[in-house]
């Protein structure tokens, strides 16, 4: 078995949930369960964030324009049902079900059609970024799936390949990261460095200025960035074997 991990980046106005997540930094959504057939799809999502963010998310899930993972930008004519299963001040659990029409397509449906049955889906969302992890058979035609996905998302959604490797049972999205063994503080430091231009050439901000913005000591920020960079480098080397081979065949 292998795992294929990639991310979709939604443009503003193309996905109500992504719009809410961008407006409320720190709010995250991960899938708890997933089921897809040729004619339908249902999923259960767990969201964590502030009470205000969760209220906005609940409204987004109920919008007529929201269909769980449907990649069709125009009205696809599907019937979508959402139901809140659990709600507290910091957590929201939502069930979503929709019947597919001839116009509808989604990541799980494309995977079912190109990769076959017996797939395991896991997702994690933060901001406009929707990360997918698919556990699949060693011989599954990943290139065919990726080509179909690229044709389906069009220009409104960006795609980023993250890894295609042998299945690691110790790796999970439950910790909210694609980067192996990267602590939350390290991810936050790395994200802030990217957002403020620390990695641009020339740099838009130096380490001391970035540390001041984050209100942490310079030495602490330097340590977190070094650890984050090391985790990214190790993950890239570990995943380069089959990702390049399979997608260039």
Outline:
With 249 residues, this protein is an alpha+beta fold. Helices cover 37% and strands 29% of the residues. Helix 1 runs antiparallel to helix 2 (51-62), helix 5 (184-195) crosses helix 7 (218-247) and helix 6 (207-214) packs across helix 7.
Q: Can you characterise this structure?
A:
The chain contains seven helices and eight strands, in the order E-H-E-E-H-E-E-H-E-E-H-E-H-H-H. Helix 5 packs across helix 7 and helix 6 packs across helix 7 (218-247). It has helices at residues 16-23, 51-62, 107-115, 142-153, 184-195, 207-214, 218-247; strands at residues 2-10, 28-37, 40-48, 79-87, 91-99, 120-126, 129-136, 157-166. It is globular, with a radius of gyration of 19 Å. It is of the alpha+beta class.
What is the total number of structural domains?
2
Strand content: 25-35%
Using only C-alpha atoms, the radius of gyration works out to 19 Å
Shape: globular
Order of helices and strands: EHEEHEEHEEHEHHH
Our count of helices gives: 7
Strands in their spatial order, largest beta sheet: 4-5-3-2-6-7-1-8
> Which regions are unreliable across 5 or more consecutive residues at pLDDT < 50?
175-181
Fraction of residues in helix: 25-40%
Quick one: how many beta strands? 8
Biggest β-sheet strands, sense, barrel: 8 strands, antiparallel
What is the arithmetic mean of pLDDT? 82
Please report the distance between the alpha carbons of the first and last residues: 19 Å
Q: Which structural class best describes the helix and strand composition?
A: alpha+beta
